[in-house]
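#dry-run=false #mode=assembly
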Amino acid sequence: MALNIFYKKDCTNHATYVIIITIALLKRQVCAMENNSKKVPEVVIKRLPRYYRYLRELLNQDIRRISSNALSNMMNVTASQIRQDFNYFGEFGQQGYGYNVKYLIDEIGNILGLNDGDTMIIVGAGNLGRALANHNSFIKRGFKLVGIFDNDNRIVGSSIHGVRVRPDMEIEDFVRENKVDIAILTLPRAAVHDMANRLVSCGIKGILNFSYSELDVPDSVPVENVHLSDTLMTLSYRIKQQKDNEQDNTEDDGQ
Amino acid sequence: MALNIFYKKDCTNHATYVIIITIALLKRQVCAMENNSKKVPEVVIKRLPRYYRYLRELLNQDIRRISSNALSNMMNVTASQIRQDFNYFGEFGQQGYGYNVKYLIDEIGNILGLNDGDTMIIVGAGNLGRALANHNSFIKRGFKLVGIFDNDNRIVGSSIHGVRVRPDMEIEDFVRENKVDIAILTLPRAAVHDMANRLVSCGIKGILNFSYSELDVPDSVPVENVHLSDTLMTLSYRIKQQKDNEQDNTEDDGQ
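#status=ok
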């Protein structure tokens, strides 16, 4: 019945026309929302560090130029996805010539602010704090560890990766004087909210939070949370899926 | 001109009808693609641990029932997103009554395989390995640390969080005998590929990889990579955006 209207009088063409126009307008609207707006989608932002990592790896292997297809195979992302992602930030490649790896690294590095030489402090010099202080990839990405703080007198005064551990009561003066950009929090949950407030009040620019609690700080101070157990739970999900699949296959074989 | 066709003869109603039908069919198709397929999208899987975390937090505060709106406000996700996500796994709530928190935790825990009591070993007893061995939230999620391995004789034989550090040459026998599910790798980059192969050959079910390198193991062994510097780069991006915004505002004020 619904199809009948296509054959009534000369509505057919009109109706088709209206549909085409409507779809075109919708499509244009979606494209405009996606690309023309300055706001880069969360998923794209999250992918940039991964691109950066892979491209650095290529440069280490002395690979200077790569096609979006080759990059796509390597990263397990479609080539059109890669082109779309890069389009948010301008034209990085030339049709048929592929991408210049070094140029791409520099551009993505710029977008990510890696060339700003952001300074960081670690608050909490336990095992995790120590592990992060020794994490070379932070330094390789252009970040500079300028201070480590703890409230345990047995640790204060010692050195980790060449950086002296200071008492946490010095933190406000230190952040102000050194214009510290980033604070990495590896504190127990009970202490983390108070410390976040203190850091915000003395002008910290961003927080990398390893504590279980989500922080309540002003929007002007971005926070990235690292929930290690979330990753473990995701892995657990995938293992369960794999076990279920294998069980299904075994049952199929038995029939 | 395009609008004119709406007023020609009695095409108006037909055209509108066709548009409504087309949109409805498109919408149904999208819904079918999204919900009827058994494959749960990556983004939904990634959100499950976060739901789990928030719901556990609610239960700790003795909150037994929550509406999708309240959960939405708390988690900064739209209520319709929450309903859509949960729909992948069946009906968790009752219209107007909200969700039973305890029931939801159990169900999501089941989906994530947290009730399977997965066993895990840590390979690499450096600072990061130690930090993870002491990470209580792993245990709270139902995972059981059964072994720690290292090749440094000065560490082998000592105990971390009540678990003895063993020499890494014992790893194959241990994984086989104890049917270990998960290996957490906190090894230097140079050692990680060889270790991953050894673990796969003795039947490990999944790997949580903290090493910089992406592993090349069979699809049947899921791997989750934790790239700590990716999170730091994302934070750097947000700080840069914030600085750019502030600069724009200052320039605007100055004009």
